[in-house]
Amino acid sequence: MSRVRWLEAEWGVTLRQLANALKTERFANDSSEGFVIDRIRRDSIEARYIQRIELTEVVMDPFGKESSYQRLSFNEQAFIVSNMNPGLELKNGSRSLQPFFSLLSQVTDFKFAVKSISVDVDAWMAAFMKKSPSKLTPDAVQVGGIAFHDGATARAIVKSGRGDASAAAKEIVAGKPYVVEKVRLRPKPGTKGTILLSSNCAATVTGFSIHEESVLLEVLRETLRRAIE
C-alpha cells in the first residue's frame, strides 16, 4: 500500500544544488536526523528524511523500585523533489512533518517554502481513468458542501451497486452546489485493488503488485500535474 500526498514547493535552488545540500546533512549512525538519497535523476531527486528518537522509559515494580531503559525508534519520510509542479511528493508520511520541513529549510538557506494545494477530484479522476492501464470504475464517492437554500450544508458518501458511484452522487446533489472530496476507483467489481483520490492532492493505492503500483503512481503524478494547471 502507498499513501502519497503532493505539496506545492519552492526551493530557491537548482536540483543539483539541492542534491549537494542534502548530502551535507547525510544521515549516519551517530546522527539525530538527516537525509538518505536513493536516486538522482535529471528532473527529480528521490530521498528519505530520517529522525532518530531516543526515549528513556521509567517503570516501577510492585515494591516501588524504579527501573529505566532506553528505547530507540526512527521516523522516516520518503519524498521526491521534482522540477515540475507541484514540486514535492510525500510517500507514507510520518505524523509530524515539522522536523522534516525545518531541515529542508536549513539546507536551502531558508529559501524552501511549501504549501498545501487542492485539486478538482472530478478532473483528476477523468484524466487518470483515461490514462490508466486498467479500466476503472468509481465505486464510492464522498461529496461535501452540499448547499441548501436555508444555509444548511451536508456531506454524503455514495457507494455503487452495479453502476457508477460518481453518476449516482450527481443524482443526489440534484443541481445543488457541492464539492467532490474523495473518489475510490476499482479496476473491476470484486477485485481487492483500489485507488483513492482526495481533493487535498492525496492518493492511496492498495491491493496491487509492486510493479502495478509503480505504474499507477506514475500515472497519478502525470494526471495530477494536468489537473492542477
TrEMBL record:
Domain of life from the UniProt record: Bacteria
Protein name: Uncharacterized protein
